[in-house]
Amino acid sequence: MTSTSPAPTPAPPTGRRPASARRRALGLVVCVVALVVACLLSVSFGSRVVGWSDVVAGLLHPDPDDIAQAAVASRVPRTVLGLLVGAALGLAGAVMQGLTRNPLADPGILGVSFGASLFVVVGIAWFGLSTLTGYVWVAFAGAGATMALVYAVGSAGRGGATPLKLALAGAAVTAAVSSMISMVLLTRTDVLNTFRFWQVGSLGRADTSAILTILPFLLVGGVLAVAVARGLDALALGDDLATGLGQHTGTVRALGALAAVLLSGAAVAVAGPIAFIGLVMPHLARGFTGPSHRWVLPYAALFGGVLLVGADVLGRVVARPQELEVGIMTALLGAPVLIAIVRRSKVREL
């Protein structure tokens, strides 16, 4: 005779989240603290170093007759803009990598930033654009047109839009668009002085009106990016499996592409084509969170804000009393981080 032991009684639910979720939430808190520290350093350091008492006074009730407090107040828009642009580029890069399943996808490598740049330089040269509002709309048009072109070229032929084909299409379109930009600038040298400071990537033109101009586009783009997070997780499994899980892949791609265009277009219009943030920050985020886009997106946004604000502070400190543009500093900081990530993870596709 054989006897069967009763099945073990399942443990009652404890009502606590898994430890991994708690660690991720704690990591977000640490990122927020790091971002606050970077913002405080940004309003403190520049051509003039400001003490903490003047920082507090300049933030709460600045005295316009006090030079130190006036310096703090003047740095606040620049700091806020750096935070917004860095977060936007980090989000845009994460969304693009999720949509294409390509670890090299970002607004720069896929040509989106260069497409926006081309439309802006054409607007300056031939249509007399000189305001941020004009830059924003033509940058959106250039970003959207370039993204559509890259995807059309990368999806042609057998196999559809594979990560390798998209990367090659992005490289080809980027080379072509860069040549067009050079052609316009060579024929219109009067535009060169206006364009060259914008092209390198800078936060030096930050003011409240610039922030208010791009803020609605960034908010809409951020909401769309969060809305497609689960769809991006499904796309990572392949289109057939994503459809089987109830995801409308066409809708996910359309909303994700719109989010990426809004985020990258607004960021490029106000600060120029800043490199490496959209490429590196999603990889850095996945190292802490894993592949789930519910966590990758906020981490990438926070990392992007910290890196861009921190790079802007370093650019003001290392060349004092002058400054290095933030686009130069992000390239210097981002390239070693990207090399380290690639050597450690050896990621081929998402």
UniProtKB/TrEMBL annotation:
The chain crosses the membrane at residues 25-45, 79-96, 108-129, 135-154, 166-189, 209-232, 252-276, 296-314, 326-343. It holds the Pfam family FecCD. It is a multi-pass membrane protein. Keywords: Cell membrane, Membrane, Transmembrane, Transmembrane helix, Transport. InterPro entries: ABC_BtuC-like, ABC_transptr_permease_BtuC. It comes from the Bacteria. It is found in: Cell membrane. One of its GO terms (biological process) is siderophore-iron import into cell. The keyword Coiled coil does not apply. GO terms for molecular function: transmembrane transporter activity. One of its GO terms (cellular component) is plasma membrane. Signal peptide: none annotated. Belongs to the binding-protein-dependent transport system permease family. FecCD subfamily. PANTHER family: FE(3+) DICITRATE TRANSPORT SYSTEM PERMEASE PROTEIN FECC-RELATED, FERRIC ENTEROBACTIN TRANSPORT SYSTEM PERMEASE PROTEIN. This is Iron ABC transporter permease. It comes from Cellulomonas shaoxiangyii.
